[in-house]
Amino acid sequence: MATYTAGIDWSTLQNDLAVVDRHGRTIANARFEATPAGIKAVLQTLAGLRAGHSHSRRAVPIAIEAANGLLVSALRHHGQTVVPIAPSTVARYRGRLNPGHTKSDRGDASLLANILRTDGAAHRPLHSNSDLADAIGILTRTHLRTQRTRHYLNLQLRSRLRAVHPAALTAWAALPNNLLRPEARQVLVLAPTSRGAARLRKYAIRAALERGGRFRLLDAEAERLHSLFQEPVLLNTPAVEDALGIDVRTTVGLLDETCTALDALAEEIDARFLEHPQCGIYLSMPGVGPLTGARLLGEIGDDPGRFATGKGLAAYAGARPFTWESGSSRTVLHRRVAANKHLAAYCHRWAFATLTQSSECRAHYDRRREGGERYNAALRNLSARLLSCLHHCLSTGQPYDPAAAWPDRETAT
Known about the structure:
With 413 residues, the protein is of the alpha/beta class. The chain has three domains: 4-122, ATPase, nucleotide binding domain (Nucleotidyltransferase, domain 5, 2-Layer Sandwich), CATH 3.30.420.40; 134-272; 280-412, no CATH class. Helices cover 58% and strands 9% of the residues. The chain is built from 19 helices and seven strands. The protein has helices at 36-47, 70-77, 87-97, 105-119, 131-164, 167-171, 182-190, 194-198, 202-211, 218-230, 238-275, 279-284, 290-300, 310-316, 341-354, 359-370, 375-396, 402-405, 409-412; strands at residues 4-9, 15-21, 26-32, 62-64, 82-84, 322-326, 329-333. The strands form two sheets. Strands 3-2-1-4-5 form a five-stranded mixed beta sheet. A two-stranded antiparallel ribbon has the order 6-7. Helix 13 runs antiparallel to helix 15 and helix 14 (310-316) crosses helix 17. It is globular, with a radius of gyration of 28 Å. The model has no long low-confidence stretch (mean pLDDT 90).
């Protein structure tokens, strides 16, 4: 047990620090701002807890209700052990120690320090990833948010076109990506309404298709769109149609910027991922490309001591069930709360992709389905198996080997 433990109750303006000894006595309190001077004051407080060469401020773990941010980054940069504790967990401790449910910033800082003092072994410190792995994680999360923004804008565009230009909803329906195609966006910017599309000439449509990057069958595609836009449809009044056309053109502009940002992010993610020393191991796994590998690396990290076993990694991804047992009742449930939801979603898609990329994965999935498991449960079991293989490969530094990963493949097929 550490001689001293510390807790920080953080806020946007002021932060409170409390340090307790092994008997729970508060021996230091300080209020500081999240500035270089404030961080220096915190480090001086921790260094001055005891005189002598045997004491080091880095031996004092700090509990805080945050896992990231400038304050956490600054403390870790100076070598402090930071232990994130969920606010819901702190609330339960507060009710246990304080039946009156009173709350203060200084009291919460002492409470956090005492949580580490009494139950420090139950709370894990922040893992130590490389800067490159953290950067990849930030970029992949940004890519995911941008994808969701693109999906939202695409739905908004479809809703607006239904009111002012219904022919555009069917113009590219048989082609991949539909309205997300660059050529579709170019044509919609040129004519966002039914009246405007009916007035388009074939050469204008052809030029818009060419600006959108299409180079095959330009004349035939321009003829098809021209004929489609000439068909009679219901029209709004001119004033209303002009306003709706501005709305469509604005939405298309936002969608175009989002698509461009996604392409740039994907290129940046690929470049950063290929620089990482573990990229070869990720790419050796079945169904893993640069983007999927970067997403897995960004969520798992590259701290070798973070997951002791493959089962622990699978549990972190929500792929391992947990058991609720009380008295004579025993229930096995899908792990939802104590899991990384982003990693769980990535692993679900990864397992699905392996069904056509790996005969061993397909055989495993089919065997689970024949045993009575549903689609999602079988995919979760497959992703748990894949994560165990990935953990072994990362621990040993060797690429994925189907013969070693599936020793029972002859009986599985």
